[in-house]
Write a structure and sequence with these properties.
Elements: E1 7-10, E2 26-28, E3 53-56, H1 60-71, E4 85-86, E5 95-97, H2 99-103, E6 110-112, E7 115-122, E8 130-139, E9 146-150, E10 153-157, E11 163-165, E12 170-175, H3 178-186, H4 196-199, E13 202-203, H5 231-234, H6 254-267, H7 307-310, H8 373-392, H9 397-419
Helix pairs in contact: 8-9
The chain binds a DNA duplex through loops.
DNA sequence: GAGTTTGAAACT
DNA sequence: CAGTTTCAAACTC
């Protein structure tokens, strides 16, 4: 590690002042006693969809100790006290930092011997501190700029040890080393052999994610992926595993990328926001999620050329389309705003919650055609999403099964009540 | 896989 | 603001 004090360089982002000049503001942090880290954990929206790299965990206590030690800017090691409370190890827990963490200079990081760690101290009134490891100690290849790419956001460890956060939201997924799982269950104080193969960053894929959570690689040839033509860029993401040519939408062209972001925002302050977002039951524009109508002429808004159609939202009076067939009636309510970013679905609202009540109620019988393809697909979607949420919440297999079964039960009740024309039961589903 | 169509974004 | 051009994705064959 060089003699330079650690510093955090915050590049302008879409959520920071878009009109600020393009020079890079630098915020230096010099933690003295303990890393002045306050992280708030936030629920990750289910539109988190992009590939991320994961890191392998060292034993928890050791990693925290290393993080705290190396994070000390004044060279004084911070030693874990016996009464410091270590948050239980949650290997796949997703934590998010946002720009306020940076702006308040309450993020710190450690980098020494090519390792990167982040730890948090959660202030409490008691004399105990709660320590949370954000990233485990991770060996970084010092020969090149190393990047932890997470959900399209990234933390960039430059060779001098500066930390560049290029997006306001940074999510990190920490993947447990299967070899460690048993040891850590036994005790988190066992030292882990410093085998680099266990600590190198490795890339995981999103193949296990449902299709709607996967990001399609772009194929740009002329825009350098620095125009809104590029879907990656438009979504505020760096290109990754794309087939684009002459791509500048990556960490190596951060300066250009930042300029492009600023230029785009100057032209269109609503760039990088979901355009078609709407809540399922309202057409009211949300304050920072403007509705935008389509302008289709030939597709009848029934092709994916139409952004409304692709977003599975019916066209509204904001649209200027001609010959529109993408109406409230033609868009199945199960699909309304469900798949795309800015999902309206809350943890208590699923596609099945949106099933319209059909037909006149009969007391005990339901129509034969209740289980049509759409209902079946919606049911499958609910169960799939439930499973996905469990996965993201690190729910155990057993609990996942139970949760899915409960969701199935709830869906069946919902379907039957819908078929009988009865109001839906208040949903109590929660996957926190 | 190549060529065409489409509509959003960019440009004038 | 309107018209035109550029672009990348969707679509067709």
């Amino acid at each position: 590690m060089s003699g330079n004090p650690p510093s955090i360089v915050l590049l302008p982002t879409s959520s920071s002042s878009p009109t600020s000049n393009t020079s890079v503001p630098t915020i230096s942090t010099h933690p003295t006693v303990r890393p002045p880290l306050i992280l708030h954990q936030q629920t990750i929206q289910s539109n988190v969809s992009t590939p991320y790299k994961s890191v392998v965990v060292k034993p928890y206590r050791e990693s925290i100790q290393q993080a705290l030690t190396t994070a000390s800017g004044d060279g004084q090691p911070i030693v874990l006290k016996s009464n410091d409370y270590l948050e239980s190890h949650q290997p796949n827990k997703r934590l998010a930092l946002d720009s306020s963490d940076i702006n308040n200079s309450n993020i710190t990081f450690s980098s020494t011997s090519n390792t990167l760690s982040l730890a948090t101290v959660i202030p409490q009134s008691s004399p105990h501190s709660t320590l949370r490891l954000v990233t485990p100690s991770t060996i970084i290849n010092s020969n090149e700029i190393s990047t932890i790419q997470t959900s399209g956001q990234q933390i960039l460890l430059q060779q001098r040890g500066n930390l560049v956060i290029t997006q306001p939201i940074v999510t990190l997924q920490v993947q447990p080393d299967p070899n460690l799982a048993q040891k850590e269950n036994h005790t988190n104080a066992i030292l882990f052999p410093t085998d680099p193969s266990h600590t190198n960053i490795r890339i995981s894929t999103t193949e296990h994610l449902p299709v709607q959570y996967q990001r399609k690689p772009c194929n740009c040839t002329k825009s350098m992926c620095l125009k809104l033509y590029c879907d990656c860029f438009a979504n505020g993401l760096n290109c990754q595993n794309c087939a684009c040519l002459n791509c500048h939408n990556d960490a190596r062209h951060e300066e250009e990328r930042t300029k492009a972001i600023n230029a785009t925002l100057e032209r269109n302050p609503n760039a990088f926001k979901s355009k078609m977002y709407k809540f399922a039951n309202t057409t009211t524009a949300q304050p920072d999620r403007p509705l935008k109508g389509c302008n289709c002429k030939k597709s009848s808004c029934h092709k994916r050329y139409c952004e409304c159609y692709e977003s599975r939202v019916p066209c509204t009076n904001l649209c200027k389309c001609i010959g529109c067939k993408n109406t409230e009636q033609s868009v199945h309510p199960l699909n309304i705003g469900f798949y795309r970013s800015g999902q309206p679905k809350t943890t208590t609202q699923t596609p099945l919650d949106q099933i319209p009540r059909t037909g006149p109620p009969t007391e005990t019988s339901i129509p034969n055609n209740v289980f049509n393809m759409e209902v079946t697909e919606a049911l499958a979607t609910c169960l799939l999403v439930t499973g996905q949420q469990c996965e993201m919440n690190l729910t155990s297999d057993l609990d996942t099964q139970q949760t899915i079964l409960k969701e199935f039960q709830r869906c069946m009740h919902q379907i039957v009540r819908s078929a009988l024309g009865r109001p839906p039961l208040p949903s109590t589903a929660s996957f926190d």
